[in-house]
């Protein structure tokens, strides 16, 4: 059981890294570097399409990573 959970944790970790790297930055490009976080203060834009899916998958994988880490720590 411990080996299965450990392998599952490694797979979830790799998937989480891949999903985070696939997401675009909040302030992409030179305009984002100049304006900084001012755009977020004025109005928050909702993610659409693939960005929304990647955001939800990131949350699910993050929670799964946390739970699996606790399970692995319990078995050690």
TrEMBL record:
Transmembrane regions listed in the UniProt entry: 57-75
UniProt record similarity statement: Belongs to the SecG family.
Molecular function GO terms recorded: protein-transporting ATPase activity
Keyword Heme assigned: no
Function: Involved in protein export. Participates in an early event of protein translocation.
Cross-referenced InterPro entries: SecG
Keyword vocabulary terms for this entry: Cell membrane, Membrane, Protein transport, Translocation, Transmembrane, Transmembrane helix, Transport
Organism expressing this protein natively: Salisediminibacterium beveridgei
Protein name as annotated: Protein-export membrane protein SecG
Localization of this protein: Cell membrane
């Amino acid at each position: 059981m411990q080996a299965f959970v450990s392998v599952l944790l490694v797979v979830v970790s790799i998937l989480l890294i891949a999903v985070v790297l696939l997401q675009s930055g909040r302030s992409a490009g030179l305009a984002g570097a100049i304006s900084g976080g001012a755009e977020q203060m004025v109005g928050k834009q909702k993610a659409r399409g693939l960005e929304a899916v990647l955001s939800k998958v990131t949350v699910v994988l993050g929670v799964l990573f946390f739970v699996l880490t606790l399970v692995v720590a319990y078995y050690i």
